[in-house]
Amino acid sequence: MSELPLIALFVLSLFFLLGSGVWxxxxxxxxxFIGMELFTGRPTGDSMAITIWGTQSSWTLTxxxxxxxMGEILFRSRLSEILFRGLTPWLQYLPGGLLHxxxxxxxxxxxxxxxxxxxxxxxxxxxIPELRRRGYPERMTVGTLAGAGTLGLLIPPSIxxxxxxxxxxxxxxxxxxxxxxxxxxxxxxxxxxxxxxxxVAGKTKVDRQRFSVRERLAALFDLLPVLGLIxxxxxxxxxxxxxxxxxxxxxxxxxxxxxxxxxxxxWESFRESLLGAVRTSAMIAFILMGSSFLSLAMGFTxxxxxxxxxxxxxxxxxxxLIALLTVFYILLGxxxxxxxxxxxxxxxxxxxxxxAGFDMLWFGIYLMxxxxxxxxxxxxxxxxxxxxxxxxxxxxxxxxxxxxxxxIMVFAVVLLVWFPEAxxxxxxxxxxxxG
Length: 435
Fold this sequence. Notes:
Helix 4 runs parallel beside helix 13, helix 6 (99-113) runs antiparallel to helix 7 and helix 7 (116-133) packs antiparallel against helix 8. The chain has helices spanning 4-19, 24-39, 44-56, 63-75, 79-91, 99-113, 116-133, 138-149, 159-168, 172-178, 180-201, 213-238, 244-261, 267-301, 303-313, 318-332, 338-356, 360-372, 382-391, 395-418, 421-434. By secondary structure, it is an all-alpha fold. 45% of the residues are buried.
């Protein structure tokens, strides 16, 4: 009991730093430093150096900057134009019309970049002006783009899945494969909502461009290089031909080749993509440094053990625990981005999940789904900020437009809990094949 004031000071300092706009990585390091000074006599500098080096020297983490660079290269290519031109002849006749291009385009680009914000920015850059020109409802244009942009966290290669795998020591390759079916299912749920909405509201009765069979096949031919790159990366992992890190290198080579074929690869775009990848990788590495040191400091406070014992004392069943964690991550997502939510909580959550008997592979996919909601949850929703800058709408309009997509993701969590095989089936086949 005598340590309660110190624990309260430690927790309050964390919330104060995170809420004051200080960089997340710096906030975590500062709070960890305070915790080490308050709760242990160990040399803080030595402990910090050893802990950070141990975390950052992981070979698995090398896949992270390579996949980020792959996305940065294609972000500066003509990919958004190719996606829109290639998908339009095939999707415009569905109820909802070109709104499906938003969703399918995001799903395809998510399978290349692994970044939610980059997915929204790339697809939205082409689709928003085109949908506006054709008279599509603004709320559905913004809502579908906000929701489908979150697929970057789930569909492999996902940066957030790499972070989770490193944190809980789970195979990155198996996590990538586990995300395929849930990612496709979530995209189909978004598209189903658009179909139902259009059939009920009938607000997309716009002029549709006519395409001949030859033009449709030509559009499909435009998509083949992009689809080939995606399938090449995923199949190289699934077949055991390459590890996640090696597949990331293949992805970078493929994206450079694709950009060269599109004539969008210049020394300037190459330099910008490399610097963009360095900046993003450094930001994530900084957050991981802070989280690893904070995890050490939190161990000395006794907070993780006390929370685990407290939740264990509630005698919650598996479903009740998942329901509680879902609400917890939704609330946390109001203030933190997805990656920060993962690294900040896993020191406490992982022992609870293992104790409850959950498959850590399945939990990783569940975590991606609930963390995806953070991307469209105000006031700190990265996708909302990206769309605000692209559309000029206020945050309230964009948040309201995203509500149906948020509810669809809640429904997807329910389906994943009800049918856990959606996440575990492909990895189990992969394991049997390699065995």
